[in-house]
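Changelog note: in this version the structure field was regenerated for every chain. One regenerated record is shown below for reference.
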Amino acid sequence: MNLASYNGDVVAWANQQAWLIRNKKFDLLDLENIAEEIEDVSKSEQRELAHRMAVLLQHLLKWQYQPERQGTSWQLTIKEQRERITRRLKKMPSLKTCLQDDEWWADAWSDAKTDAEKETHIAFDQFPQQCPWTAEQILEQTWFPDDNVN
């Protein structure tokens, strides 16, 4: 059997690895790269969750720091991101560990501040160094941050 290279055509390689598994040809499997691909799926899901959280946090920052610009568009984005995050956490409960990971939060918060700075023209360092809200507040459908910024 002519085996596809992982470093060549990864789609052909993946299809071939699936065929080998289904046909119980375990001795021909590329186990190291299969393990790496499985780990990448987990990392991809964590990145997707972090991206959605950053978008949500960005809009919550905008909501708090620019109360005069609050509108339906921001509300809808906040609602949509909360719903998508909640659905993702229900489908993949192991992702909830991200919500206890300080490094994960720091990355999501930094991304949110960077994007909020671009859209609001408020300097990055004018936003709190760390997220001032709890995960419960952030994901609560009816919660919005206070408009009073010091």
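Spot check on this record: The chain has a mean pLDDT of 94. The chain has five helices and no strands.
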